[in-house]
Design goal:
With 139 residues, the chain is an alpha+beta fold. 37% of the residues lie in helices and 26% in strands. The chain folds into 2 domains: 38 residues; 77 residues, OB fold (Dihydrolipoamide Acetyltransferase, E2P) (Beta Barrel). A 5-stranded antiparallel beta sheet has the order 3-2-1-4-5.
Length: 139
């Protein structure tokens, strides 16, 4: 009886080691697939702008300042004042000259979260310096 137990212990240990290695390999493959399928921050921002441009509510805002590729603007929704900014680095070709960036602008905002707003997207612009309703890339 003792000899049968001695022969079974190495088999059980080998089975547990093989199971642990297979589990670790499966976890590694799953992690790599999950990591590859994640959306990049740039793509997530583009999707946010597209959603706001198509479904966002329209409002008035005032352009406060232009700092490099950041546009700062303020607006009020239901008596609450918001000051927001939008990074224009990926939308640089849709921006007019900096000299014409001033004064009132339109914004698109999420009605459920008014702090989520944009001034410019690939398919829409709230910059009143432009004569087009859809932004046109600069040549």
């Amino acid at each position: 009886m003792l000899s049968a137990l001695v022969f079974r212990l190495p088999a059980v240990a080998a089975t547990l080691v093989v199971a642990a290695v297979l589990l670790a390999l499966g976890a590694l493959v799953g992690y790599r697939k999950w990591k590859a399928s994640r959306i990049t921050p740039e793509e997530r921002e583009r999707l946010r702008r597209t959603a706001l441009a198509t479904r966002g509510k329209l409002g008035d805002a005032s352009l406060v300042e232009v700092r490099g590729e950041m546009v700062l603007y303020s607006y009020a929704i239901r008596g609450v004042e918001y000051i927001a900014s939008q990074d224009m680095s990926s939308l640089h070709e849709y921006l007019p000259d900096e000299d014409s960036l001033s004064g009132p602008v339109w914004i698109r905002y999420d009605a459920k979260n008014p702090a989520n707003s944009i001034v410019l997207a690939e398919t829409w612009t709230g910059l009143r310096a432009r004569s087009h309703s859809v932004p046109q890339p600069r040549p």
